[in-house]
Amino acid sequence: MSEQSWVEVCAENDVPHLEGRRVVINGFYVAVFNTEEGFFATGEVCPHMGGPLSDGDVAATTVSCPLHARKIELKTGVVHNDDLSRVLTFPVKVEEGKVLVDARILYTQPEVEEDDDEQDAVA
Ligand code: FES
């Protein structure tokens, strides 16, 4: 397992104001959001039925899941007005126009060897 903390995921300009973008860190989908209070990052998958959070509408520091509109607080990962489990959140910083995510928790997961046959089947 490799030790990794801050990972550069995109340029600041890659995520328009009040939008999100999906990035991949160590094989995991992570959603990066540009909000009124700066950048935030969460897991990409909505805990309700798996909606892609990076495609949701951003307002203040929440995102509305594009599938059924549950609102998720980007600072805490809490799903508003619902008993659903929280979404994982990650520290984010912007340096010299680059967005960096502290994704060390994702590097505690077992490494997966790439399977060339599986890659071909998906393509
Ligand atoms: S999948 Fe996100 S609210 Fe239903």
From TrEMBL:
Alphabetically sorted, this entry's keywords are: 2Fe-2S, Iron, Iron-sulfur, Metal-binding, Nitrate assimilation, Oxidoreductase
GO biological process, any: nitrate assimilation
What region holds the Rieske domain?
A: 7-101
Q: Does the keyword Iron-sulfur apply?
A: yes
Q: In which organism is this protein found?
A: uncultured Rubrobacteraceae bacterium
- Tell me the superkingdom of the source: Bacteria
Gene3D superfamilies linked to this entry: Rieske [2Fe-2S] iron-sulphur domain
Under what name is this protein listed?
Answer: Rieske domain-containing protein
Q: Does the keyword Metal-binding apply?
A: yes
**Which GO terms of the molecular function aspect are on file?**
2 iron, 2 sulfur cluster binding; metal ion binding; monooxygenase activity; nitrite reductase [NAD(P)H] activity; oxidoreductase activity, acting on paired donors, with incorporation or reduction of molecular oxygen
Q: Spell out the InterPro entries in the cross-references.
A: Rieske-like_NirD, Rieske_2Fe-2S, Rieske_2Fe-2S_sf
